[in-house]
Design goal:
By secondary structure, this protein is an alpha/beta fold. It has one domain (about 55-365): CBS-domain (Roll), CATH 3.10.580.10. It has helices at about 35-40, 55-70, 75-80, 95-105, 125-135, 140-145, 155-160, 175-185, 210-220, 255-265, 285-290, 300-305, 325-335, 355-365; strands spanning about 5, 90, 110-115, 120-125, 190-195, 205-210, 265-270, 275-280, 315-320, 340-345, 350-355. α4 links the parallel β2 (about 90) and β3. α5 (about 125-135) crosses α10, α8 crosses α14 and α9 (about 210-220) packs across α13 (about 325-335). It is globular. Bound molecules: adenosine monophosphate. Adenosine monophosphate binds near residues 263 and 357. GO terms for molecular function: ADP binding; AMP binding; AMP-activated protein kinase activity; ATP binding; identical protein binding; protein kinase binding; protein serine/threonine kinase activator activity. It comes from Paraphaeosphaeria sporulosa. One of its GO terms (cellular component) is nucleotide-activated protein kinase complex. Pfam families: CBS. InterPro entries: AMPK_gamma/SDS23_families, CBS_dom, CBS_dom_sf.
Length: about 375
Amino acid sequence: MSGADTADSATSAPPNPPSAANDVLQPHERPTFVTPRDFLEQGRPVLPPRALTAVDKEQLDGLRTIRAFLKVRTSYDVLPLSYRLIVLDTALLVKKSLNILIQNGIVSAPLWDSKTSTFAGLLTTSDYLNVIQYYWQNPDALARVDQFRLNSLRDIEKSLGVTPIETVSIHPERPLYEACRKMLEARARRIPIVDIDDETRRTTVVSVITQYRLLKFVAVNVKETQKLRKPLKELVKVGTYDNLATAYMDTPVMDVIHMLVKKSISSVPIIDKQGTVLNVFESVDVITLIKGGIYDDLNLTVGDALLKRSEDFPGIYTCSMQDQLSTIYDTIRRSRVHRFIVIDDDNKLKGVLTLSDILEYTLLEGEENE
Ligand code: AMP
């Protein structure tokens, strides 16, 4: 796997003692088996609550500390002392917006409607995926697609019947916790910070917070992330392990784009016929593919499309089911990572753990009992 970086593996727990196949169990020692019929007839069997282990308690304690931290910090706190903000006017041609994003090494930008002097939502890779879908359904309309401006994105989205441009935002003085909850509710991977002038009610876009920036802020400032010592395999479903969307190197890139849109996901692992992970196609990869409003590269296979990636592509991050969230947070602190591909010892795909999953777990795990 070229350029791959692996999250440090956690020290693994001692293996279970081998089962003594010949031992005969006494009736009182026999385990109770639950059959599917038990579920049908009685609903879910009520299992006695398992006593929390010291590691469980430490994990919950770590999560509580992170949440308490997010409740007393505001969106302003995440911003660096100096930063740039690129805001695009909705009158801009879609193809020009692509070039601006590429030239500035960014993948999203807030939109500004200069006719009404208002914030007009956040432009993200999902919007470009929609333009591509539109073009694919109306290949004869290339001349029209070429003239699309950012303010026509809403019409495209309406005609495709897909999720419209993201308009969720947060005031800079609201707690970060609220920004996180809003992101989770909207399934957004970033949220614009928008200030409103009390007198004029005019909006000002201050910046955009991404999931990565947020989780990195936590990783850098909350040393209690070290308390998250339960291995992934012991956590109830953090990440996705079933019905994974995957593709092969010779899959047409358009098929992968359809998967990204249909499942509202930001990446598709590329595997070989044995399930070994070879690469990952990310939704941001489409930006280079349709650079300058030229759609010919959409006919490529995934393998050829990935060759167009820029030299500074940071690589793929992997982890195993033995890794702990503390290690995952360590990796987030050190590197610009957006997802971990979960693999086994033979590099076979097991699942996907994205920043959305980590954020959701960090905010919501056990929350109903709080
Ligand atoms: P993302 O948009 O990549 O942050 O992912 C949103 C949700 O979709 C998370 O719960 C991921 O675990 C899940 N997910 C991401 N990629 C895939 C994939 N290729 N197949 C199935 N689920 C995925």
